[in-house]
Amino acid sequence: MAEIVSVLSGKGGVGKSTVISALGYSLAAEGKKTLIIELDLGLRGLDLMLSLSDQIVFDLGDLLYGRCMLSDALARSPYTPWLSVIPAPVSPLKELDAGRMAVLLRELSLHFDFILLDMPAGLYLSPSLTALLADTALIVATPDPVSIRSAGKVRALLEEQGFTSHRLLINQFRWSTFKKSGFSNMDQVIDAVGSQLIGIFPKDEKGISFLIHGNKPVEGSAFLTVARAIARRLLGIYIPLLIH
Ligand SMILES: Nc1ncnc2c1ncn2[C@@H]1O[C@H](COP(=O)(O)OP(=O)(O)OP(=O)(O)O)[C@@H](O)[C@H]1O
Ligand SMILES: [Mg+2]
């Protein structure tokens, strides 16, 4: 059965789709059959980041409402046989049927080691869907007070629903801006959110540019090194935490 990992945030634009793409490549590099499902309905973007555009005919909406077979909606990465994606519909669905989604995940779980859910930002839908569907939640935040506060709200909403398997993932970290953020160290950030830290992605425009252009992952960047470490932590391997 696949481990289902939800990647969510309170504030939008913190980098969920960017980090989920890098984690997908990294789990695939570990030889794990990985599927990313894009739940940001109406805001498809992973097709561009993961170079899938010319393959996509069907999407998550078609799959949920029986308009295609499972295999028709799976887009396969051109760069690794271990990574597949089910893209979001380009137009928003009226609502996501959580029951249908749970049934679909049960079936998909038989075919993958990891299923990563790219959730929409915000407090309304993603925490409750995560509590219903996922085994683990990665709460993504940038190290600024507004994003950190919203991550704390996500954590609280998850716990209200009895879901405690959450980890904090900091993205776009830069020492120079962190010093101006009002936090004096990372422990204060962790306390403010109330979730254990799984990793810190640096702000690394060069390191993420392969995703912006839909290219093959470029090894050796600080960004991808962190993704590799987080993927291995998800596999239960001890990797010391580094701040680049
Ligand atoms: N570590 C990083 N270093 C530099 N830029 C980054 C990093 N992570 C994300 N970005 C940039 O931040 C912007 C938002 O990223 P992304 O679309 O992944 O966020 P998101 O949380 O998925 O947004 P949304 O809430 O709209 O779904 C993009 O322009 C992306 O290239
Ligand atoms: Mg996104």
> Looking at the chains present, what oligomeric state does this protein adopt?
single chain
The largest β sheet comes out as: 8 strands, mixed
User: What is the C-alpha radius of gyration, as a whole number of Å?
Assistant: 17 Å
Chemical compounds bound to the protein: adenosine-5'-triphosphate, magnesium ion
Quick recap:
By secondary structure, this protein is an alpha/beta fold.
Structure description:
With 244 residues, the chain is α/β, with parallel strands linked by helices. It has helices spanning 16-29, 46-49, 60-64, 70-73, 98-109, 126-133, 145-160, 175-179, 186-193, 205-212, 222-234, and strands at 3-8, 34-38, 75-76, 83-86, 114-118, 136-141, 166-173, 196-202. It is built from eleven helices and eight strands. 40% of the residues lie in helices and 18% in strands. The protein is globular, with a radius of gyration of 17 Å. Strand 6, helix 7 (145-160) and strand 7 form a beta-alpha-beta unit. Helix 6 (126-133) packs across helix 7 (145-160). The chain has an eight-stranded mixed β-sheet, sandwiched between helices. It has a single domain, classed as Rossmann fold (3-Layer(aba) Sandwich). It binds adenosine-5'-triphosphate (ATP) and magnesium ion. Magnesium ion (MG) is lined by residues 16-17, 40, 45, 118.
